Amino acid sequence: MLLFANICLKIATLATICGILSQLQVAGAAAPAGSVQQLPQRIYNLLHQLSCGRKLNASAKFALLLAEFLIKQKMRYITPTRYDRQLYYQLLHKMKQLGSCASQGEINQVQELILRNAFQRNVLLLPPNLKYGALNANAEYEQLALSYDSLVSQGAPNRTQSDLCMRDIVNLDTSKCQLSLNCLELLTSEAPAYGYQRTHQALLLYMLQHHICAPSLSPPQLYEELAKGHCNEILSEQNAIRSLALGLGKYKDLYLEQATICGLWGYNEFLNWRNVMEIDSWRKEEEQQEGEEEEEREHIKDLSLVFYINALLLLH
Ligand SMILES: *[C@@H]1O[C@H](CO)[C@@H](O)[C@H](O)[C@H]1NC(C)=O
Ligand SMILES: *[C@@H]1O[C@H](CO)[C@@H](O)[C@H](O)[C@H]1NC(C)=O
């Protein structure tokens, strides 16, 4: 970024063009200069903040498992350069250390079953890919924005249902591959859902798609189709959140969860440099003001770790 700014300053007559260019770069596919190098550093900083002293609860541990899985999946399909390989191994090493820290937060029995198996056993690795323009970017969201505050808590699954379904997915018996009815219903439901309920549907689907039982449960295109449906809805929600006066202040955590989960599915509408910069700017704000709730900040860190690592792997 800095270098870019310098050139703009020197060639004064071109300043306006540079201004336009840098905006385009932020919004488009190209990486703003500087961000690319900074991404690994941001991830190191985050990992540092997640250090052993802090109590890792279920969602922090889950984030570490997911991040590790993403790196391994990428390495399996795309031979890394020597630099990348070194970086990936350093990250994996650091995450392994963190994951094995003794100090744990409260983790219930269902969560324990999830953490023992998720992304570690019976996984199906799939080639990672970034999908451009697959979603409907022009969907209506003004109506949604008007009633978003009351809609956001509607739909299924709630946290308990989501944990139970996740447990069923990661503990599928690979000789039968029979998923519980409750979970199947959740995953195929067409009932309206918003907020975390919708993101959890998309996450559960992602986990099922990466289980070795996935191909025997349904054809691969079906997972993609269902995910596209979810992420199209989620994109409208993000637009609604952006259009609300206090939207991004109020729904930061949700916004990041939406970007992270639809980013896992590779949708460029979520996984892009604009979002990397946006999320980065929140972190800078937070370092300055201590007002926000500790809890929410911690969850934002867990999510950002997954978001940044996915960005490192797919946008780099
Ligand atoms: C979650 O939803 C189920 C089914 O509707 C309900 O029985 C349960 O009480 C809900 N749990 C919470 C924590 O809201
Ligand atoms: C884990 O802790 C964070 C805050 O530290 C909280 O926001 C989140 O809801 C917790 N998750 C679980 C599954 O307990």
UniProtKB/TrEMBL annotation:
The keyword Zinc does not apply. GO terms for cellular component: cytosol; membrane. InterPro entries: DUF4735. It comes from the Eukaryota. The keyword Signal applies. Residues 1-29 form the signal peptide. Pfam families: DUF4735 (PF15882). Keywords: Signal. This is Uncharacterized protein LOC111594039. Transmembrane segments: none annotated.
